[in-house]
Amino acid sequence: MASVQSRRVSIVGAALSANKGAAAMVETVVAKLPTTLGPCSFSLLTTYPDADAPKIPTSSPVDVVGLQPLRLALVEFPIALLASLARLLHLPLGWVRSRGCRAMLNSDVVVDVAGISFADGRGIPIVVYNSLMTGVPLLLGVPTVKAAQALGPFQSPVNKVLSKIVLPRVTAICARGARTREHLNSLGLHNVTDVADLAFSLDEAKDLPSSIDAQVSEAGDGFIVVMPSAVVRGIYESKGDNYVAAVAELIRRIRQETGRGVVIAPHSYRVGHGEGRMNDGPVCREVGALFGDDALVVTVDADLSAGELRKLIGRGSVLVTSRFHAMISGLCTETPTVVVGWSHKYREVLDDFGLVDFGMDSHVLSTPDLVVNKVIDSLAKSDEYSQQIRVALPGVRERSAKNFSVIAQAVQS
């Protein structure tokens, strides 16, 4: 019997280190895509190759390829432009040896798992980065799929121009929610499929590391998980407010009104690095340091995997988070989830569960009682909300699995 051909897949737009939401999407693609596409080997093109190498999933072969932003802009993109010209002249591309372009050229499909891209308000450098990341495989002529992500709106001049250049040329775009679909419709695109986030297909870890398990147990039964965000800190403090003080006050009110312990944990973490968009460790430590006299407030300061973070969230009675994929883990574990976020991407997912009112913008931290009341309501109606989530989950997971069908169709077309 002839052996089944193994497909080669490149993954861009995410890493296994730092943002564990991105890690969740990488882990999910590596674990689940072979069930739809058949045997696969993967190249993970990552900005953190050294940190990612020890974390690679073992369910399928994965090569780690360094693709830092400067290398993308100054090496891979210019080579991809030359390769595009060579393709127009029907010249071979064997001369392309740069590691990023070569990994993509060797692939049957490139899967872009950026959680959000081409969105107004994120700054010109990020929009340009989105364009380069998706543009390189397009220039190389490799089928490219933007897996589940939020996109748009496309009103700012630079974003509007670049999105109109890049997005129509993508093989398939997986729209993660109704608002994203509306934004994409405004561009008149015909390559869009409605899906749910990839992370709804992620497997939860069987156990927490023993040291973390012992630590969170100190918060007592029915503890509440609070996951601050360095991104939301930047947004909140841009108006002159103090994010650490606001989150600390929120935790004090939760402790006072519910009597429950609180576990503070980062959903993005970079070992040995300062605070940044991809590292919530420092802000969690700052908040936790204000509760040194309260034994029922525990701060987790560890680099957990996406599956382990899902396990931790499932141990809690309520989740309060500002990280998108922490919210998804709350929903996947049927944990009542209160969101203090910054984008339409949160509410469009909560809407699938009839819980859109549990998605709030970061300005509510100035009036913490609004968040505390949601927590109290979640505790009082815990069984009701868990059942509501449980009923909606199968349909959402089915839409999540559509990502893999779309990727398979891109390979076979």
Overview of the molecule:
The chain is an alpha/beta fold and 413 residues long. The chain has two domains: 7-194, Rossmann fold; 210-392, Rossmann fold. It has helices spanning 20-37, 49-52, 69-88, 99-105, 124-140, 157-166, 178-185, 210-217, 230-237, 243-258, 281-289, 306-315, 324-332, 344-350, 369-380, 382-412, and strands spanning 7-12, 18-19, 40-46, 62-66, 109-112, 116-117, 144-151, 172-175, 192-194, 224-227, 262-264, 268-269, 297-299, 318-321, 337-341, 359-361. The strands form three sheets. Strands 1, 3, 4, 5, 6, 7, 8 and 9 form an eight-stranded parallel sheet that branches. The chain has a six-stranded parallel sheet with strand order 13-11-10-14-15-16, with helices on both faces. The protein has a two-stranded antiparallel ribbon with strand order 2-12. Helix 7 links the parallel strand 8 and strand 9 (192-194). The model has no long low-confidence stretch (mean pLDDT 94).
Give a quick account of the main beta sheet: strands, pairing sense, barrel closure. Answer: 8 strands, parallel
Question: What amount of the residues lies in strands?
Answer: 15-25%
Number of helices: 16
Low-confidence stretches: none
